[in-house]
Amino acid sequence: MSKIIETIDYFAAGSCSSHLQRMFKGVPKKKISFPAGVFLLKHRSKGYILYDTGYSPAIQKPSLKYWCYGLATPVTMKSGDRIDLLLQENGLVPDDISYIILSHLHPDHLGGAAFFPKARFILTQAVFDRYQKRRLKDLIFREFLPADFDSRLEVVEPQQVEAAFLYRKTVDLFGDGSIYLASVDGHAAGQGCLFLPEYNLFIAADLCWGVDLLPYTEQMRLLPSLVQDSKQDYLAGVALLRRLLADNHQVLVSHDPTERVKEVLHASRNFSENFY
Ligand SMILES: [Zn+2]
């Protein structure tokens, strides 16, 4: 039987960097680059769906706000790193994107949203609520969203635990069992995370910085702890990831290293081939 999600592709639309020892106690000195990951799903009937959109190059423009952001999170964005240009290299034009699921509204996730004039945007209810009552700490850079963003929004609320994913309440996005969306607090309120049963894959936004960094979670320093929306919920999100991994599900987060993402996508494709 052919799959509903026919393909999953991955792009890094810019990156930011940090020093491991500034994030966690008791770790070796190491500078790490965190790609702003974008996933492209090809749905059999709904067309192309993006999960997040990476950075906007505009974040490198001179501005006090962007300067402050860059101080904590230095951004690297080459010309050509824009998600619409990366897609173009792969033969897609912006109008080909029918849906964009924004996991949350930090600048490394919503930055490319304005490049897709026909896409409908999908947010969880909790992300939408925060968007409406945004505070400085929420780091929602509204200027990178298209002017007509509100009129293209579809807000969804995970309502029940489905047999396909027993760990959390989800919503079956298109009612065909291809994409289940969960809402997970912690790093940001209600981050939209995806479970794709055909690939046994959970794509988990910023539930952690990288799956390989999960063992350091409890050693997180004060400053990175303070930038999380809720440290307690963050730890619960990490526990969810650990459980999924222990149960042999594949897990990816938005800032996993590109090589890891490619390996996991490769393994997930093999799963799907064996499964169908
Ligand atoms: Zn974030």
Automatic annotation (TrEMBL):
Gene3D superfamilies: Ribonuclease Z/Hydroxyacylglutathione hydrolase-like (3.60.15.10). InterPro entries: MBL_superfamily_lactonases, Metallo-B-lactamas, RibonucZ/Hydroxyglut_hydro. SUPFAM superfamilies: Metallo-hydrolase/oxidoreductase (SSF56281). Residues 35-255 form the Metallo-beta-lactamase domain. The keyword Transmembrane helix does not apply. Keywords: Hydrolase, Metal-binding, Zinc. Its cofactor is Zn(2+). Belongs to the metallo-beta-lactamase superfamily. PANTHER family: 102 KBASES UNSTABLE REGION: FROM 1 TO 119443, QUORUM-QUENCHING LACTONASE YTNP-RELATED-RELATED. This is MBL fold metallo-hydrolase. It comes from Streptococcus panodentis.
